């Protein structure tokens, strides 16, 4: 191998490692958000996913059962200029909720999907 090839491979490997570190840091941050008062992890709760199609957002949430969780979610969506078109809340097991929301983007909506997910995770 020539020196240029070795440097290209090394550069590629370092880039892969940096991406892996970034992903692990995000996972640690999420675990910190999901920690309960005892400092132990509550699995992966809340799990929030979002998808965008044109001017609509599909949001799925799996979280611990708690009073007022929908109010918290709907309040955040309103602040983000998302109007709820439909929603469903299903009890999943004895202590968790499965929540699905379809929302319409309003004027002034300008947040990324990742930021939307982080905002809802923090609110819950």
Quick overview:
By secondary structure, the chain is of the alpha+beta class. Helices cover 43% and strands 30% of the residues. It has 2 domains: 1-33; 47-123, 2-Layer Sandwich (Alpha-Beta Plaits).
How would you describe what is shown here?
- With 124 residues, the chain is α+β, with helices and mostly antiparallel strands.
- It folds into 2 domains: 1-33; 47-123, Alpha-Beta Plaits (2-Layer Sandwich).
- Helix content is 43%, strand content 30%.
- It is built from 3 helices and 4 strands.
- The chain has helices spanning 3-33, 69-79, 113-123; strands spanning 47-53, 56-64, 82-92, 96-105.
- The chain has a 4-stranded antiparallel β-sheet, with helices on one face.
- The longest helix has 31 residues, at 3-33.
- The relative contact order is 0.16.
For the record, the CATH architecture of the largest domain stands as 2-Layer Sandwich
Structural class, judged by helices and strands?
A: alpha+beta
Largest sheet data: 4 strands, antiparallel
CATH class of the largest domain reads Alpha Beta
Strand composition percent: 25-35%
* Average pLDDT rating: 85
The quaternary structure here is: single chain
Pfam families: bHLH-TF_ACT-like_plant (PF22754)
Organism: Pisum sativum
Domain Plant bHLH transcription factor ACT-like: 51-124
Protein name: Plant bHLH transcription factor ACT-like domain-containing protein
């Amino acid at each position: 191998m020539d020196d240029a090839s070795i440097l290209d491979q090394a550069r590629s490997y370092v880039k892969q490692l940096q991406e892996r570190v970034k992903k692990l840091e995000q996972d640690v941050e999420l675990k910190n958000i999901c920690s309960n008062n005892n400092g132990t992890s509550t699995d992966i709760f809340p799990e929030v996913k979002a998808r965008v199609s044109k001017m609509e957002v599909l949001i799925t949430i799996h979280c611990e059962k708690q009073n007022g969780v929908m109010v918290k979610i709907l309040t955040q969506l309103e602040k983000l200029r998302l109007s709820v078109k439909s929603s469903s809340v299903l009890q999943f097991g004895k202590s968790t909720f499965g929540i699905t929301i379809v929302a319409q983007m309003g004027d002034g909506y300008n947040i990324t999907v990742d930021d939307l997910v982080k905002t809802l995770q923090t609110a819950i």
